[in-house]
């Protein structure tokens, strides 16, 4: 929920699970799945490297805060 809170105001109205969005209370990822929270490109899956798209941030989010959170949970995460 901390991540969703940083992803911009009004996401509870936008992330409904309809219209190519994931439900705000459910996390899922998928290859070329526009209805997932995180979408991995087909080339990324095929080549084992590339990009992913976090589809949850809204346009009114702070890009510095969100980029920092994504880096912490993907690159810098240490279990």
Strand order of the largest sheet: 1-2-3
Q: Based on helices, strands and strand pairing, what is the structural class?
A: alpha+beta
Helices and strands, in order, run as HHEEHEH
Radius of gyration: 13 Å
Rounded average pLDDT: 85
**How many strands, which pairing sense, and closed or not: the largest β-sheet?**
3 strands, mixed
Number of helices: 4
Residue fraction in strands? 5-15%
Give the domain tally. 1
Distance between termini?
Answer: 19 Å
Query: Uncertain spans, ≥5 residues at pLDDT below 50?
Result: none
Q: What is the number of E strands?
A: 3
Backbone shape: globular
Helix content: 25-40%
Structure description:
It is found in: Cytoplasm. With 79 residues, this protein is α+β, with helices and mostly antiparallel strands. It has one domain (2-74). It is 34% helix and 11% strand. It has four helices and three strands, in the order ααββαβα. The chain has helices at residues 2-6, 11-14, 42-47, 63-74; strands at 29-31, 38-40, 52-54. The chain has a three-stranded mixed β-sheet with strand order 1-2-3. The radius of gyration is 13 Å and the shape is globular.
